[in-house]
Design a protein that fits this description.
homodimer; mainly alpha; DNA-binding
Amino acid sequence: MIYLLKGMKQEAPTPKAGRPRAFDVDEALERALQVFWRKGYEGASLTDLTAAMGINRPSLYAAFGNKEALFRKAFDRYAAGPAGFWAVALQAPTAREVAESLLRGSVDSLSKPNCPRGCLAVQGALSCGDEADPIRRELNARRAAGQELLRQRFERAKSEGDLPAHADPADLARYIATLAQGMAVQAAGGASREELSRLVDVALMAWPK
Amino acid sequence: MIYLLKGMKQEAPTPKAGRPRAFDVDEALERALQVFWRKGYEGASLTDLTAAMGINRPSLYAAFGNKEALFRKAFDRYAAGPAGFWAVALQAPTAREVAESLLRGSVDSLSKPNCPRGCLAVQGALSCGDEADPIRRELNARRAAGQELLRQRFERAKSEGDLPAHADPADLARYIATLAQGMAVQAAGGASREELSRLVDVALMAWPK
DNA sequence: TGTATTCTGTATCGTTCGGTAGGCCACCTT
DNA sequence: AAGGTGGCCTACCGAACGATACAGAATACA
């Protein structure tokens, strides 16, 4: 349930001057992602984050900016990693396969061991206080962007005769996105991999023929 | 997307002794509900709450206990009010009508003017810090309880020949609940009434015949 | 070796958080 | 009218929040 994979880790290998970093920025970001994923943007305190990342506050601020910037970087990492199945699914040959790949990918991602149950794009900041509002809006925009990519893919499928004439690409995209989002809530509530998998079986019965 | 309607407002009409309250407890609770609904449990500060309720902190504590107790009371009000369509839907004569009534009711609730976009049971505390964890668990349990009622209703429907033999009541209940939850996320992202309504049309295509 | 540069760690900033103490006030019963 | 009861309000509590100042330590370059 995340989208777009911005460039990960281009690694500037010029060690320049000054005292070298005592921690791996990439691994610290991964730890931060885990915390945000589990607790959401508001629920993750700097104490939680620095403890999990194994660094001090000033190091965090020097390396990532501030809490909001850290979240955005963590989200990009999420989009490229755990939510990478989204981009993969969009490349499936038929609309039906795109839909199924996306939903099966969601099941995998939501039931992966040693990962928080849920989706960062959904749970990150669904509703929140005023301070976190920019993050909420950004996540709304990201979800909408993913759904829009899906709509475009289905539009193309329709022009290729891959979808029947009566099918509406926007409606289908919304249907699939809604399922993926609902599945994130189900996963947060403890739904098992098998339950989510059967859910996808049921959901795909609605696919136009 | 909420369930169970505990008793609302039994109104003890005995004015007893002491200075009478200067505010309407019921209306104050309604205002608190609006704040929690819009900002979630963590995102709603006592300052937000008391400002909206038009009372001071000590009055809030005297009348409702503390923030957590206030949230639970607000949630009960939500379940009996804006989410009352859930209980109504369960009484529809056929399984198909139960499902459709529930989803149409969700559309109505999620697109009602002058109400926050979304569902308190979903957005209240999907993921949060440690302090709000009891609320998160409670909301998980409430969602699960609603889904279980739906399952039992579909179980009955099956025994009444109202669902085909190959249909699995648990899977159907999860499907409908997932849609309702996903729709709450869609509404939070700005989906219109018409979009949600067409979504329901698509989703019901999956219903077993 | 000296200096500039950059990171680390401690100790703290001002603000906001949820929650309360205590004085004042309004209403009841007697 | 007196006393008791309970709600209102100001002002405040300790703790946690996100964010930093500053001094010391580790490196590159001169």
